[in-house]
Amino acid sequence: MDRREFMTGAMALAGSVAMPALARAQQAAEISFFYPVAVGGPITKLIDAYASGFAGENASLKVNPIYAGTYQETIVKALTAHKSGTPPVLSVLLSTDMFTLIDEDAIVPFDEFVKTDEDKKWLASFFPGFMENSQTGGKTWGIPFQRSTVVLYWNKELFKEAGLDPETPPKTWAEQLAFAQKLTKRDAAGNVTQWGIQIPSSGFPYWLFQGLSTQAGSILANPAGDKTDYANPAVVEALQYWVDLAQKHKVHPPGIVEWGTTPRDFFERKVAMMWTTTGNLTNVRTNAKFPFGVGLLPAGKRLGSPTGGGNFYISKKASKAEQEAAFKFVRWITTPERAAQWSIDTGYVAVRPDSYETAAMKKYAADFPAALVARDQLPHAVAELSTHENQRVTKALNDGLQAALTGTKAPQKAMEDAQAEAERILKPYR
Amino acid sequence: MSAAAKPAKLPAGSITRTDPYAPTGLSLTLESFGAILLALIWVLPLAYAVWAAFHPSEFTTRFELTAPLTLENFSRAWAAAPFARYFLNTFVLVTLILACQLVLGTLAAYALARQDFWGRDVAFALILAQLMIMPDALIVENYRTMAKFGLVDTITAIALPYIASAFGIFLLRQTFKTVPKELDDAARVEGASPLQVLMKVYVPLAKPTYIAYGLVSVSYHWNNFLWPLLVTNSVEARPLTVGLQVFSSTDQGIDWAVICAATLMTSAPLLVGFLLFQRQFVQSFMRAGIK
Amino acid sequence: MNTRATATLHGWLLLLPAMACLALFTHWPAVASFIDSFYSTPRGRRPARFIGLDNYQQMLADPIFWKAMTNNLWFALGTVPTSIALALLMAVWVNDRILARTWVRMAYFTPTVLPMIAVANIWLFFFTPQYGLLEQIVAFFGGRPTNWLGSQDTALYAVTIVAVWKEAGFFMIFYLAALQTIPPSLGEAAAIEGASRWTYFRRIQFPLLMPTTLFVLINAMINAFRMVDHLFVMTRGGPDNATTLLLYYIYQVGFSFWDTAYAAALTCVLLALLALIAFIQYGWLERRTHYR
């Protein structure tokens, strides 16, 4: 049955009153595919187009994409569907959900589908930075799809006004601070009218903090996902640097900086430099009324940034045939050309280096060089923080970071508390 | 008090009595000033939504009278998410809930108000328990139940925990109790069955209660968020509120212009309905004796 | 005796549909939460097992739980009296023949018809540092800039204000309906006695509004434990749990951490709190009814 007809028909309405989408999908014997949307733009239309493109080339197979909300909502839905018996065959979920999905016995590794040499070559073709979050215990559980990383955006106009070279972003922590000091403006009453730098800290501060902690030379969790290292001196040093930007040097807004309003702050010229996701490229390009630059995050002891975003996972409860079909779709959608086009359309990072050699990507990058920054940063990128009981262990860190940034705990104490809480949660997993 | 039997005339705007305590002169001016000031504060979010929705996004945070007007935010919002489908879902949802609530509530209220039977008081107490233990507190277990029934991601699942409403039963019971017993007896003498008596005597007299309760129920469920968020996955079942949240919480940060356009769009039916019927609305409350 | 049996049968038949739904979606889940709170959360291949009071012990040692409880207490203290007082004030104003009365009444009521999840985004703009509406106003009067939602001192106030704004107009309708049913003759009689307006309000209007106040009070108390929608947009419970309310924490534990057993134990605490409120208020209600 044609999907559009299905959706608009009266039958569909009757269906949605009483029958879950999954059951509706599986009646038609299709590969159900849950995906989230985390960036603006016509993602739903793009995915639908992929599904029909795939169906065009593989008459016997049909992918039925189901838009399941944000990442958070999609994992909730996929897991509950898993528990109640009819999970989607394929889903795009956060790369950090890997351990949770393994613990829930919800996914199968991709290794069992990789048979030919060609398959093996394909598996080795992704950026290693993305694979860190996709592999554990010698197996590959996820395939990178809509992935991102944190980069620095700066306002070239404000750089010029402050007497800085508009083409040169800060390269080190010291430069970042020095630039921010020049870029912070105060009115006669001493109130700040323009901040030097902004690193968002609402919702998921751990992700941006991972940039700092990596640059300070630490890794927040081990690859097995059962031990964190929040109280490491390098981690505390990284947090101290962040806290100092706001509290000591007063070049960064005090308290919690809202993730959602940060791009707007940048457009309003209330902040000269911001850290945010590469997923914001298209947004900034459309809305910034001034020339802007995109650069690597400045280096501390080293360069560093976390990766983020979603991987493909295949359900364990699906039949062998369904799993094989889902694998075929994943291979189909991650060819260099499609990965490049997906990156151009959405602003996500293309997941494999050879995508950047395609004609389409070269043409795009010639027009918009900022699109290549993510690729240049990826060799220095690390896996996004991910452990068993990921949400809880991450929340321990988030709470500690917010406590330090709002000034209720010293960085040292905040990280010790977070580490103690993470230890308590992770102990049973060792 | 006798709610249903009350004379139907006492509309808010046209009171002809002389109230010795009605403020006049300076005190009226002061009172009006205070009331209008508070009203301005209260309507500010809506006013801002209108501003942001009808102006290009660079004027979202700047209030200049000369800013150009635009409808582009509405078309962008409409294109960004399947709002037509969400509207349909919400419409089906509130209709389904209200219809069930009224039928179930009427039957139960009639039994509690006019039938004398074994276990009535216990039943009433059990029903009243829901006034306190609201369905929102039971999300974890109710989710489990829906999963067991295979109803997750359906409109039915959003509706089910709410279709038996203690508040509705309680209100209708109070109203039914005020119906004169003689009317009931007279209908019975004419040979009407209990259900006929209910339909012919009680239901018509309780009309204001039905309207007032209906309005409360519709506005509550039109705007309900947490439970629908948990229990729906797909566009086909998602109501407006959840659709709106999914649409406004992207990684790219907040675009107030589009969000405000979407907000106005999604609340327009309720807003317009209230503007048109606000007098009847207050009267229904008054006559329903909800106080 | 036979008629009595028939009446019982009829009565229960009429009650059956409503009772069945209530049993399935209110009574049973309440009992099930209680039972589940003594078991561990099943994960993957590990089934749930009986663990006695472990979940409750974990709760006692959980600082976030205590934080959520204190926050909720302050949230209730902030929203309940304020929204009731404002609702009463609005109703009295709108009941008088003030200027632009229809318009003012409409303004008070609009928050009720706007979805909380949507207006939370608008309030987010009001509270945004630097160019947010509140900051623009504060700056106009030469005040110090504040990061309302990003500071632990002010975030809870900010979400409380939004809740008061949301519900006061709704409660106003109840007061307004009640005010308009007070017979005008009472006012005339009081005026003949020479009572001042304040005395008339305090001695006559307010006592007559008592049943409404009780009704509104119950609703306001329940709302204090129910209103969490705006947290999803404005703070997500942060900074460092400064705005985490009990129901929001239940959502996090139940649907983000997937610790359903612990969530069940938290649900039991919420239910116990609500029962306690009911108990106190019904005790009071009983006395009031007697007094009337």
What can you tell me about this protein's structure?
The complex is a heterotrimer of chains A (about 425), B (about 290) and C (about 290). Chain A has about 425 residues and is α/β, with parallel strands linked by helices. Chain A has 2 domains: about 210 residues, Periplasmic binding protein-like II (D-Maltodextrin-Binding Protein, domain 2), CATH 3.40.190.10; about 210 residues, 3-Layer(aba) Sandwich (D-Maltodextrin-Binding Protein, domain 2). Chain A has 20 helices and 13 strands. In chain A, the strands form 2 sheets. In chain A, strands 1, 2, 3, 4, 7, 8, 9, 10, 11, 12 and 13 form an 11-stranded mixed sheet that branches. The longest helix of chain A has 16 residues. The N terminus of chain A is likely disordered. Chain B has a domain of about 190 residues: MetI-like fold, CATH 1.10.3720. The longest helix of chain B has about 35 residues. Chain C is flat. Chain C has a domain of about 200 residues: MetI-like (MetI-like fold).
Summarize the structure.
The complex is a heterotrimer of chains A (430), B (291) and C (292). Chain A has 20 helices and 13 strands. Chain A has 430 residues and is α/β, with parallel strands linked by helices.
Indicate the topology.
The complex is a heterotrimer of chains A (430), B (291) and C (292).
Chain A (H helix, E strand, L loop, with lengths): L2 H6 L1 H9 L2 H7 L3 E5 L7 H15 L5 E5 L3 H14 L5 E5 L3 H6 L3 E2 L8 H7 L4 H4 L3 E2 L2 E2 L2 E13 H6 L11 H11 L1 E2 L5 E7 L6 H11 L17 H15 L14 H6 L3 E7 L3 H7 L4 E4 L9 E11 L4 H14 L2 H11 L12 H9 L5 H5 L3 E2 L7 H16 L5 H16 L4
Parallel strand pairs in A: 1-2, 1-3, 9-10, 12-13
Antiparallel strand pairs in A: 3-12, 4-12, 5-6, 7-10, 7-11, 7-12, 8-9
Helix pairs in contact in A: 11-12, 19-20
Chain B lengths: L24 H30 L17 H9 L2 H32 L5 H13 L6 H11 L5 H5 L6 H12 L3 H9 L4 H12 L1 H17 L2 H6 L8 H9 L7 H33 L3
Chain C lengths: L1 H35 L17 H7 L2 H33 L5 H13 L2 H12 L5 H8 L14 H25 L4 H10 L3 H12 L1 H17 L2 H6 L11 H10 L4 H32 L1
